[in-house]
Amino acid sequence: KAGVTQTPRYLIKTRGQQVTLSCSPISGHRSVSWYQQTPGQGLQFLFEYFSETQRNKGNFPGRFSGRQFSNSRSEMNVSTLELGDSALYLCASTGTYGVREAFFGQGTRLTVV
Amino acid sequence: AQRVTQPEKLLSVFKGAPVELKCNYSYSGSPELFWYVQYSRQRLQLLLRHISRESIKGFTADLNKGETSFHLKKPFAQEEDSAMYYCALSGSSNTGKLIFGQGTTLQVKP
Q1: Min Cα–Cα distance to chain B from A44, Å
Q2: pLDDT tens-digit profile of B59-105?
Q3: Which residues contact B53 (CB under 8 A, 6 or more apart)?
Q4: Distance between B74 CA and the closest CA of chain A, angstroms
Q5: Which residues does chain B have within 8 Å of residue A44's beta carbon, measured at their own beta carbons?
Q6: What is the spatial distance between Cα A96 and Cα A109, in angstroms, rounded to a whole number?
């Protein structure tokens, strides 16, 4: 079956702009989690959506938000971009076995200039 | 506080040498521990989970609750093992939330 798909793969934005990233989970998976990966901080959990509801949230400012649609596809939005938001954003989908079987996308590389 | 610590940023060994990637965790409860691997230009993928007590690609990891550790070991390193390795923790298998360590780059020299 198809893996986790993230679009776009690369983005360049200017400070102050907003951006929307998309994640399509594996078919049948109802949970999508988002992570920020940076060289300094490593992989940090942003939030998780399950059946269109936010189930978990990490320690990120309110500029970071997300949503999930009825087909389980998820979007992540970052408003008022800062230089420090430059990172690789990964999403992971999980199915029946939860985090014991998490599959990651290839990520969206966001560069803020 | 929930935390995963990987003390080494870089571990460099020669092919055929034993490998031990260290992972310590802090969690008030009974977490589930995982090792993820990211090869160059590939996506992050699950390597091992403590609950399965399995050996994948020659790697094993034992959960030591007394020392709150989950070190990854391989008796004989191969060049294709060169990658970034992340230790991760989950408080519940019913969620998608993982807490990751900073990662350790394993470099296996010929």
Answers
A1: 7
A2: 999 889 899 999 999 999 999 999 999 999 998 767 789 999 999 99
A3: none
A4: 22
A5: 100
A6: 29
